[in-house]
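From the shared-data thread, chain only:
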Amino acid sequence: MANEPIIEAQGLTKRYTVKKKTVEAVTDLTFQVARGELVAFLGPNGAGKSTSLRMLTTLIPPTSGTARVVGRDILRQSADVRARIGYVGQLTSGSFSQRVRDELLSQGAFYGMPSTAARLRADELIESLDLAPFATRSVQQLSGGQKRRLDIALGLMHAPPLIFLDEPSTGLDPQSRANLWQHILDLRRQHGTTVFLTTHYLEEADRYAERVMVMDRGRVIADDTATHLKADLAGDVLTLGFASEDDAQRAVPVVQGLTDREVRRDAASVTLTAPDGDRLLPETVRALDAAGLRVERATGVPPTLDDVFLTLTGRTLREAGEGEPDGPSTSSGTETAGSGDGPSTGSGTEATSAGTENTTGVRR
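Structure, as tokens:
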């Protein structure tokens, strides 16, 4: 159905046993994603983002809870889920001995694409992701950034209605990142593709995502548009400078009368954080002028998504553990990534559920 959510998660939870201790990587993940949305899933490494993606893409089963992806149950219809999604994991997916173009053609064949359509699609992706100079090289001859672009191409080969991207632009230079995002946006515009991605580049989420979900310690702690999150949870930082500390002290009650936010004085400056800084700043300057207080300088700094994370957790995204592994490094027992009733997901070797999969797309 056209109005049916493309992702419906209800109470997804994942627990691991590490050194005889239970670690809950994801707790009660419940949300819906509408068709055509571009959702950014933010949080530090270790927050549970990649574990969530692995459950939604059927790579690992949840400990409890359920989800429907593209209208199919992730446990009972895992093969159907895999046939209808694209997934780009964090590690290189290509078979090292295969040439770039041949790898794309093989991916198309695995999806049952006619050879002519596969060649056209491969050429399109090679061109748009700037892989043409390397199309006849083997994957093992590519640089890290070139391999990442190939990963993206593999995930997009069959133009899926839903694609999961786990930190897709990591390792790419600014131009390649811009080209990648242009292709993602073109894909959405042309085919209505739903994009669900994790990223540590907060400016990408701020610029491109229609919706931002923030995860920390296995739980979703915020879910809204970037604009609303920044306005409601962070706000613009307004700073007013005066000729003397005495003027700044006298200004505090005047400014406080215009907002319910805390007003702070630091030497000859007054600072506050407010959700409507564009409106409040000129209003404040006028009120101070009417009170006989001259503002020597005034600045308004818009908030960032890192400010949102700081407000929510008391620390910035980088302070929260950027660069640490997502999820436990080991687990008791071996859960095969991609276990289920269908073909293995990915073009390379898949690790167990405790590791990071080399996965892109569906292998038949």
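The radius of gyration is 24 Å.
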